[in-house]
Amino acid sequence: MSPLTKALVLLVTVLSIVLVALVVPFVAQTDDLNAQIGDLESRVQVANAAARSAVQAQTELQEQLDNSDNELQKTINQLQDDNARLTQEKATLEGQLQESNSTATRNSATLELLTNSQTTLTALLEDRTEALTEAQSANVQLKRENAQLAQVNGDLDTQVTGLTRTVRELNEKVVELRESVANAAAGGGGSTGVAAAGAGFGGEEVIAAITAIDTVEDITMVQLNVGQSDGVREGTQFVLFRNGNEFVGTATTVTVDQTVSVARVDSARGTVQVRDAAMTGIRY
Question: How many CB atoms lie within 10 A of CB 203?
């Protein structure tokens, strides 16, 4: 029982005692006193009822207080649990934040590296693009040169065809000259002397072409595309001709390499030209 209830009970008890003490001396008194006693008893009953109501209210209040204490304790426990959980979540979030900061630092370094790599790749791409442009230009130039070479090759084929025809005609002419020499030899010594003074066959045949011409102080030097490997030696005489049978002049080699020789033009009928033919073994 709470102190308040005890106080009320004690108060009621004291009041009862006082009332009893007051009622006993005045039992024999008048109706007014009886009325007063009845009134006091009524008041006591009301007080007792009020006291009981107060006790019941106090009990209910105590129960409510106990319930409130329980609820408050539960709330406190829940808050403590929430606080512990939030503390744990805070620690987890701090760890995640630290990890995120580390990741952001790594990503920043990676981004910087990628930026540098992008710059390097851009420069490399520009270099490759420039090299590709130059290669394309070179390819165009090569195609142009190839076309020119194809044209030159066609010209050379035409020249080879002409030279082949010239060689064939020269071979026929050599055969005729050999027959002339043989007929002259068979005809007698005087005829032989005439043949020696005119045109005739003079030894092993070497057919060449003039590839270059140089004139110094009225001396014309020509380059031939034959040399030691073809049987040419210094002092070898060549007859120069054009278009198969057009006599141009004569020349004598002064320097001979393995595949190229240089000859001095001894006589010329007109102007010696590049691609003119030259042949040994014929005398004019």
Answer: 12
Give counts: helices (H), strands (E), the chain. 3, 8
Q: How is residue 219 written in tokens?
A: 């001396």
Amino acid letter at 188?
Answer: G
Closest among 202, 172, 182, 169 to 284, alpha carbons compared: 202
User: If you write DSSP's letter for every residue of 26-93 in order, what string do you get?
Assistant: TTTS-HHHHHHHHHHHHHHHHHHHHHHHHHHHHHHHHHHHHHHHHHHHHHHHHHHHHHHHHHHHHHHH
pLDDT tens digits, 216-273: 888 999 999 999 999 999 999 999 999 877 899 999 999 999 999 999 999 998 889 9
In whole angstroms, what is the distance from residue 60 CA to residue 53 CA?
10
- At which residue do the structure tokens 């403590």 appear? 80
| Phi, psi dihedrals of residue 212, rounded to the nearest 5° | -160, 155
Model pLDDT for residues 95-143, shown as the tens digit of each residue = 999 998 988 889 888 888 888 888 888 888 888 888 888 888 887 888 7
What is the pLDDT confidence band of residue 194, given thresholds at 50, 70 and 90?
very low
Give the mean pLDDT of 85-99: 92
Q: How far apart are CA 284 and CA 277, in angstroms?
A: 16
The answer to whether 246 touches 232, Cβ cutoff 8 Å, is no
Structure tokens given for 136: 């394309």
What pTM, to 2 d.p., does this model score?
0.33
> End-to-end CA distance of the chain, in Å?
166
